[in-house]
Structures are given as structure tokens and as C-alpha cells.
Amino acid sequence: MAEVSNDSVSKAYEAIELAKKSGKIKKGANEATKAVERGIAKLVVVALDVSPKEVIMHLGPLCKEKNIQYVEVPSKDDLGAAAGLKVGTSAVAVIKEGESKK
User: Fold this and answer.
1) Residue ranges of the domains in the chain?
2) CA 36 to CA 24: how far, in whole Å?
3) pLDDT tens across 58-79, in order?
């Protein structure tokens, strides 16, 4: 498992929270994948504690291919909370940054 810096994790959560309020986000691996394939995602954040890993394995290479920023975070529960969900989520894609662009 890749080492994730705390700074990039907190910035990713913050970006999602801001984009949720003032922009637009897509929640879940399927929605994130569609956003990347359509080229509308600005940032994709993926949880590393997803099981099975096959659910999110394709997102890293896909984001690299489409030149979309990709961040891994340790917890799907924290990722879900940042996206305003009561449950965890495997992935979140930021579509419109809103105030998180800063």
C-alpha cells in the first residue's frame, strides 16, 4: 500500500467538502469512473481500505491516462463523511470545484 501524506489527505477532504457545498461532486466508484471517462472530473479521491481492491484498481491508471489529479486517502468512512454521506464511499470525483479551486 502506498504511503499517503497527511497533508495531501487533509487537503483532499477539504477540497471535497468545499466542492460539495459550492461545486459538484460524484460519489462512488461507478460515478467517479464515468466522470473520468467523460473527462469532466477535476480531482478523484479514492479510499485505500476498499475491499475488494478491484472496485477501485482501474481509477489510478484511468486518471493518469486522462491527466486528472488522483489522491488516495486511508479511510472510506472519512471520505464518505467529507462527501456528506452517512456511510463510507470508495471514491469521490470533484466535477465543479466551486470554492475548492483555491
Assistant:
1) 17-96
2) 14
3) 999 999 999 999 999 999 999 9
pLDDT in tens, 5-40: 788 888 889 899 989 887 899 999 999 999 999 999
Measured CA to CA in angstroms, residue 83 lies from 13, 47, 78 at distances of: 8, 12, 9
Q: Residue 23 corresponds to which cell in the numbers above?
A: 461545486
Nearest to 93 by CA among 68, 74, 75: 68
Tell me which residue of 51, 55, 66, 49 sits closest to 2, measured CA to CA. 49
Report the distance separating Cα 37 and Cα 26, nearest Å: 13
Question: Does the 17-96 domain belong in CATH 3.90.650.10?
Answer: no
